[in-house]
Specification:
InterPro entries: G_OBG, GTP-bd, GTP-bd_Obg/CgtA, GTP-bd_prot_GTP1/OBG_C_sf, GTP1-OBG_CS, GTP1_OBG_dom, GTP1_OBG_dom_sf, OBG_GTPase
Family: Belongs to the TRAFAC class OBG-HflX-like GTPase superfamily. OBG GTPase family.
Binding site for GTP: 165-172, 190-194, 212-215, 282-285, 312-314
GO molecular function: GTP binding; GTPase activity; magnesium ion binding
Structural class: alpha/beta
Largest sheet: 6 strands, mixed
GO cellular component, one term: cytoplasm
Radius of gyration: 31 Å
Number of helices: 9
Strand order of the largest sheet: 10-11-9-12-13-14
CATH topology of the largest domain: Rossmann fold
CATH class of the largest domain: Alpha Beta
Length: 425
């Protein structure tokens, strides 16, 4: 089964908390702080796996969570960092933020790997807070929370040559003749329900990858038929083979079919009409009036397409010559990376300490979010030294500055979860 779109949930690991610990050696009456740092949470990394050809794996597993860093220990023992979570994807996978639809990464090279979410930083143990005036700190830093996101994986096939044409014009037959691919072939429309890839390896030419793109008919760019599902796969092809049934055996006009499909390419993405395109008249073995080939060629030439060839995929007539022409043209068509506009790209938030400040109906400034939860979890605010550290963290992380910008005044109340206190500058 060919799956080319999948929605999944990913989460990086939380950082481990720093430890609060003091030396307790037998002959040391006043041991100093020796709490170790917490370990870093695991990153979520997407890596290209060349052996994968579909996103089928993500149909059955849709949630991926990296491990958390371990907490720090006594005797300045650092908590180990969690292992990164590597998620293999096929070559040609685009990672998008599901909410905005913006592109996070495009994995179009065999050695591509991309860190989509970074694990939370481990917290410092109390040994890191010892100074000449504060020799016994009884507080430590909490580990920072990981990140989470719903993303969309979108696969765009990486093929050198893409086969275009209305259903039943012979695309699958051609693919089966020139490669080891075994697409389903039958004499009815929409026999092919998913893209098929094959490698053309013939004597005297450089091998190349060819793809049969199914279901592109009139209205495909608006969702008619199957085309809207597969138009994206044409975007990465360097050369298009546009196949028409020149015999007209099904009562269709080959020229009109050719024109309509190019209109769909233009409506989907304007630059697709600029892609090098070879026009192929198929089923010449069924054509009784050969003069129609000249008439068709003249019309296509007038539209700006100068390369028109004849073949019969069923009998093999002209097939080898066509593949050699494709191989020769590919040598002069460079592989160009897809360039995205700035408004298509996802820009991550720079602020990793996530919190939100609101004002409730009583005029209380409410600070909430994952940063608040982790901070309160790690501290005992009934302890004066830990309470002083709490206020220091609010200042260092910008919370107090944000409150000032919102107009907080001396004596106003601030609430973080169940903890409430009055503000004084």
């Amino acid at each position: 089964m060919f799956i080319d779109i999948a929605d999944i949930f990913i989460r990086s690991g939380d950082g481990g908390d720093g430890a609060i610990s003091f030396r307790r050696d037998k002959y040391v009456s006043h041991g100093g702080p020796d709490g170790g740092d917490g370990g870093k949470g695991g990153d979520v990394i997407f890596v290209v796996d060349p052996s994968m050809t579909t996103l089928l794996n993500f149909k059955y597993k849709r949630k991926f969570v990296a491990g958390n860093g371990a907490h720090g220990g006594q005797s300045k023992c650092y908590g180990p960092a969690a292992e990164n979570l590597e998620i293999p994807v096929p070559l040609g996978t685009i990672i998008k933020d599901k909410e905005s639809g913006k592109i996070i990464a495009d994995l179009s090279k065999t050695d591509d790997r991309y860190v989509v979410l970074r694990g939370g930083k481990g917290g410092k143990g109390n040994a890191k807070y010892a100074t000449s005036t504060r020799q016994a700190p009884d507080f430590a830093e909490p580990g920072m929370p990981g990140e989470e996101r719903n993303i969309t994986l979108e696969l765009k096939l990486l093929a050198d040559v893409g086969l275009l044409g209305f259903p039943n014009v012979g695309k699958s037959t051609l693919l089966s003749k020139v490669s080891k691919a075994q697409p389903k072939i039958a004499n009815y429309h929409f026999t092919t329900l998913e893209p098929n890839l094959g490698v053309v390896a013939m004597p005297g030419i450089n091998p190349f990858v060819i793809a049969d793109i199914p279901g592109i008919i009139e209205g495909a760019s608006d969702g008619v038929g199957l085309g809207i599902q597969f138009l994206r796969h044409i975007e990465r092809t360097r050369l298009l083979l546009h196949i028409v049934d020149i015999s007209g055996i099904e009562g269709r006009d080959p020229y009109e079919d050719f024109r309509l499909i190019n209109e769909e390419l233009k409506r989907y993405k304007l630059d697709l009409t600029d892609r090098p395109q070879i026009v192929v008249m198929n089923k010449v073995d069924l054509l009784f009036d050969k003069s129609y080939m000249d008439e068709f060629t003249k019309k296509v030439n007038e539209l700006g397409y100068s390369e028109v060839y004849a073949m019969s995929a069923a009998t093999g007539e002209g097939v080898a010559e066509l593949m050699k022409i494709c191989a020769e043209k590919l040598q002069s068509i460079p592989v160009v990376d897809t360039i995205y506009d700035d408004d298509e790209m996802y820009i991550p938030e720079e602020k990793r300490f996530t919190y939100e400040i609101t004002v409730d109906e009583d005029g209380v400034f409410v600070v909430s979010g994952s940063f608040v939860d982790r901070l309160l979890h790690a501290l005992n605010l009934n302890n004066p030294s830990q309470l002083r550290y709490f206020h220091k963290v609010l200042g260092n992380k910008g919370v107090l500055n944000d409150l000032k910008e919102m107009g907080i005044q001396d004596g106003d109340s601030i609430r973080l979860n169940d903890f409430e206190f009055e503000y004084y500058a």
